[in-house]
Amino acid sequence: MNKIIQQNFKVEFNYNISFTEGVFDVNNPLLSNLLTSKNKNSTTRAVVILDKGMFYYHSYLIEQIQTYFKKCCLKIQLMGEPLMVEGGEGVKNKWSVVENVLDLVNKKKIDRHSFVIAVGGGAVLDMVGFASAIAHRGIQIIRIPTTVLSQNDSGVGVKNSINYFDKKNFLGTFQPPFAVINDQTFLTTLSDRHWRSGISEAIKVALIKDSLFFNWIEDHITLLNNRDPETMNNLIFKCAQLHTAHIGGGDPFEKGSSRPLDFGHWAAHKLEYLTNYELTHGEAVAIGIALDSCYSYCIGYLSENELKRILHCFNNLGFELSCPLLLDPLDINRINQKLITGLEEFREHLGGVLTIMLLRGIGQGEEIHEIEKSKLDQSIVLIASFQNKKLTV
Ligand SMILES: NC(=O)c1ccc[n+]([C@@H]2O[C@H](COP(=O)([O-])OP(=O)(O)OC[C@H]3O[C@@H](n4cnc5c(N)ncnc54)[C@H](O)[C@@H]3O)[C@@H](O)[C@H]2O)c1
Ligand SMILES: [Zn+2]
Q1: What integer is the mean pLDDT of 202-208?
Q2: Which of 114, 145, 185, 357 is disulfide-compatible with 110, CB 3.0–4.6 A?
């Protein structure tokens, strides 16, 4: 006789994404309030992990962090100096760095009521998030994102990852953070390239969800190009809000086959790998969105005017939309076969049926389950001609 015990429970997650300036300034109580909000016993500890690329411009941080804990976080033990890890995608390609974080958690006796505080770009946050999620089955993490992309997208969600088997984000978990703190002070030292890079994720979410936000981005291109801080803060806030609403409102742990926020990402992830991560994530996403927007136009979903607006928007922000790796090396009118394998890898990452987000209009995403190769060929030719300023669209 078969027997069944049925298990059924729900777990609720809550966390705040706060916006501030000078997170480690002794006059700013935000972090100390967070650290003491739930954990008030004397064994609560914290370790800090810093992105070296960011630290290069913010070398005052070590002293500032120590002073902050001494003066503002009397109940929390800061366990030694911050651990420095290399910044950029390379940190997601090295298992040894994950081990360094695990080693820190072990040696400093960081338990599940203690905190890992990660300060850096999306790559460092993804790697530290992964290590924190697997240590003791999950240490609380406070993310302090320091790039546009990590403040408006990667840092505010529930995923972490490293690259493995030569595949982007192959290893990773879903682990909501304890809190996220976006400190605008960090953005001033970004290179122009990384300042621009994160804007593509804002264009992405605007294109699939919010046409008014897309109009707003179009109207603020000059201010964004001139690195106007207030304009960027507004872009980051709106983009983070749209991402957060989507994640919380639907399928946060991606149990289905659909991943709308990954519009343009099937090609982007593969291009990042094919260029040996020479393209940043945001730059690859811009190309991926251009490709899938051209595809939407080629199958009659998007009007010519809408496609022009999208391509011009990226172009005017300084994004390069064509890339030699889009093209078959033997026939520039065909899409690179190596890129096509990205479609199956994208499907496999989620499981289930292939689900690709396209555009039915600006602000209106629509998912499809099949991609016609001949239309992809037409799409890469369109992008190349646009980029060559022949403007056939
Ligand atoms: N987990 C998710 O949901 C999710 C979502 C989107 C993207 N991502 C991941 O995010 C990563 C990209 O993140 P990114 O765009 O932040 O790039 P990045 O982390 O590669 O950082 C870019 C460069 O900027 C440096 N840097 C960081 N902060 C700085 C500062 N304030 N001043 C000067 N330099 C600074 C870094 O050292 C690095 O060299 C990719 O690995 C991507 O896959 C994850
Ligand atoms: Zn992305």
Answers
A1: 98
A2: 114
